[in-house]
Write a structure and sequence with these properties.
It is built from five helices and five strands. It has 152 residues and is mainly alpha-helical. The strands form two sheets. The chain has a three-stranded antiparallel sheet. α1 crosses α3 and α4 packs antiparallel against α5. It starts with a helix and ends in an 8-residue tail after the last helix.
Length: 152
């Protein structure tokens, strides 16, 4: 999932402990330019940065001044809540995956137990192989869909 530009910039402010000097002096005459060390980490172009900063100002998530930008309490809260939601989503996905795998294992183990009591032979081995194939298919599909990606 791609992050919106405003959130990339907001997260960058958060990682900088909420206060950033977005301008740096370029010469003895007092001219200023954007602080490239800070902005280069966002990998956004100048227009995208400008739009993102304007959006964050309008949303009252940052305060801008001559010397720099600082996060408001709402800005800190927005980053914290978004990160908490991402973490909770990852945990929920992991629980769903574990539940599916345990349910599948229980069904197959029951089938193996019934098959081994009724007639010995290759049936329990085939059921175990089938369980392994189904588990592999479920795992690869969950991986493909990003359900096992906890950084999302």
């Amino acid at each position: 999932m791609t992050k919106p530009n405003w959130y990339i910039v907001l997260e960058q402010f958060y990682e900088a402990d909420g206060r950033v000097d977005i301008w740096e002096r370029t010469d003895d005459e007092g001219r200023f330019k954007p602080n490239n060390e800070f902005w280069s980490e966002t990998e956004l172009n100048a227009n995208e940065l400008s739009d993102a900063v304007r959006y964050l100002e309008d949303a009252k998530l940052i305060d801008t001044g001559f010397n720099g930008v600082s996060l408001t309490n709402d800005g800190f809260k927005a980053v914290y809540e978004r990160r908490s939601t991402r973490t909770q989503t990852g945990l929920n996905r992991a629980l769903v995956a574990l539940t599916l795998i345990l349910a599948l294992g229980t069904v197959v183990q029951t089938a193996i137990e019934v098959a081994s009591q009724s007639e010995p032979g290759y049936l329990p081995i085939l059921l175990l192989a089938g369980e392994t194939l189904i588990f592999g298919a479920i795992y690869s599909e969950m991986y493909r869909r990003g359900l096992l990606d906890f950084d999302d």
